[in-house]
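Exercise 3.2. Students should predict the tertiary structure of the chain below and write it as structure tokens, then compare their answer with the key that follows.

Predict this chain's 3D structure.
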Amino acid sequence: METQAKTAITVQATVDAPVEKVWKLWTTPVHIMKWNNASDDWHTPRAENDVRPGGKFVWHMAAKDGSTGFDFSGTYTRVDEKQLLEYILDDNRKVRVTFIADGNQTTIIETFEAENMNPTNMQRMGWQAILDNFRKYAENYGKIEKLTFEITINAMPETVFKIMLEDKTYRHWTAEFNPTSYFEGSWGKGSKILFLGTDQNGNQGGMLARIREHIPNSYISIEHYGIIQNGKEVTSGHEVDEWAPSQENYTFTETNGKTQLKIEMDSNQEYKVYFKEAWPRALKKLKSLCEEGV
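Answer key:
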């Protein structure tokens, strides 16, 4: 009996990023979890990836509502770093991924053997959608954008400055970012300062920063240069290198007995929406604290 030949399907995309960056984002589990979905109602909550010949990978893909999920898994048969990946899926289908570098652009070509459960066109669309999602993720990853937030507070700058930075009231208005938010350290120029809090699992984390400038009642400039992870200071690695150092500046301007407070900060694309939602709430709470004369 002859074995029926498997249909080969090819998808491709050109990414506006150098191959070094593309390779890292394609092969690192923490990044795979961010881009490996064909639509917004799916995600990859877990990924393991041993990128070497004979190495295994398991990417668990699931509907966000928890209704269904499956493991996309297999074994690498060839790895040419920043050039080629070949692997066999656990259902014995072969996949070849080629990375073609061209300066600050990288073309990714994926050829995979189709399965027999779904129409080939549907499979092509699904793989292309994931590849397009990777392209968007890679092109936006690490891009820094300056965000600006402003509010007028019916209080003098010295009042706003004090309430904004004192420990008790700082915890109150920054609860809009994290209910357990607090800082350790000093606001003095040149001082090291930690911005801390706990996540939903009770793990402590935060940002590592220094005060670049401190002009009382007028201006504060903060430089973030690392994170706090598992109780340790981390100043390099993929979770830091793409955004650090970044700045966050507070300007206090007095006009007719009121304070115009202006926040200017650097944000990567991953946290842009979060900051745009949280900062207006936080400033509204700060305004209330200042005008109530806390």
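Discussion points: The two ends are 85 Å apart (CA to CA). The longest helix spans residues 269-291.
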